[in-house]
Fold this protein.
Amino acid sequence: MADPTRPLPSLRDLDTQAFWLATKDKRLTYQQCADCGAVVFYPRRRCTACLGANLVWKESAGQGTVYTYSIVRQSYHPFFRSLAPYAVAWIDLDEGPRLVSNVVAIEGPASVRIGMRVKVRWEEHEALCVPLFEPA
Amino acid sequence: MAQARDAAIVGIHEFPSRDVEGALSPLQIKAECAARALADAGLGLGDVDAIYDAGEGGGMAGLNIAEYFGLKPKVIDTTGVGGSSYEFHAAHAKRDLAGGRARVALLTYGSTAHSNARAIGVGGRGGGGHPADNMDSFAGMTLVANYAMVAQRHMFDYGTTSEQLAEISVVTRHHAMRNPEAVKAMQDLEFLDIRETTLADVVGSRMIADPLHLLECCMISDGGGAVVIAAADVARDCAKPPVWLLGAGEATAYPENGGDLTTSAAAQSGPTAFGEAGVRPDEIDIAMIYDSFSITVLTILEDLGFCAKGEGGAWVSGGRLRFDRPNDGPALNTDGGGLSSNHPGMRGIFLLIEAARQLRGESCSQVEGARLAVAHGNGGMLGSRHCAGTVILGRD
């Protein structure tokens, strides 16, 4: 049996499609409302602050801070079972979006801390790249 | 504002088995519970004219349950917000009965999560089918990790400790050991060591997702229940004393850029419910709080106003929430909770049922003279998107 692989996002979901297509070029993107300035993440159709239709895509520099995290030791999925223990985290990008990812620290998941500065590290797949994070 | 005593819980039933060994379906469990809760109230099927259903029985929610039970209700409410659904249902039943749209409401729940071996608990995923899920499925976030991230941030912001979180597990187990159905549940689900626990037991148990340990996680059982709610004039003539629905509140919470993950939707639903009931948290005798994990309870107790934000760890310490210390604070989850009695996936109905038992004087861990209870359901996931339903209950 082949090694289990990471479950990947769908490129057909109409709200998040543009985000994932941009990752192919290792671009980490988010939406901002041209009317009221609100940062919108995850991507969607209309602004979550004013319901305006003028959401424009911006690119993040890929730097952020760990807001909180956990070290997963037991998982439902063969890939993540083989990966455990691993760190999942809410990461606050410097531009404002808060996203879920893994912090891939060289010293292992136990070295992850709240407030730790992190930067994106792309994991390449065929149709897209996955934004993981490592200590900045 | 005067308390409006316009709707009351008049019938309850909790399905006793936590392992039906595949011999019953969720719909069959719902029907069993419906019959027994109606009998408890001294009412019959023909009295029911409103149904509230979270849709876990399969098929088209509302329609399938009406047909299966043989009902032609005048009010059908299919609010499905996970474990908090039943607090929402109680709130909506109170509204509908007070408004004269119906007279007798029936809420049912059935689940065979244990028999199905569904991974809803410590390793399960939760959620699905929403654009937000397409953003984080690559990261291997588990259901428990979602809650663990709240605990981690709570510890960071407020200095909360694992020993303080363990208080929730210890007091809940203490109550479970007094409840024969909870003890049977732990036996049927093959818990390794069925006894009172200590703080050291909890923090010494296996880490599942840091900082949450095994004994801070709810079980995955089969189960079900039913609640009958009646308008005031009907309630006065039922077999058991009425347990009035005095106030209710509803809320949502979801990730927001820069938001505070340690504050749950209870911070919105709580004040609404307490305000409608005209009571304060310090008047509450019984706190039935959704205990999917230890951190769920700690966060919700703070958000409902039992103590200040961030002070929950110190506040729950020293066994404050035990049923036999009524002068120190409310008794927590006196049935044994999801941690030690049952958690078939959506345990909100059991919060109403045990609150009603306490206010009738029927609990295994009865608080003498209990007059006021709060039932707070949390549906979805605490560390990301969830719903909260708060219901304040009182006896005559």
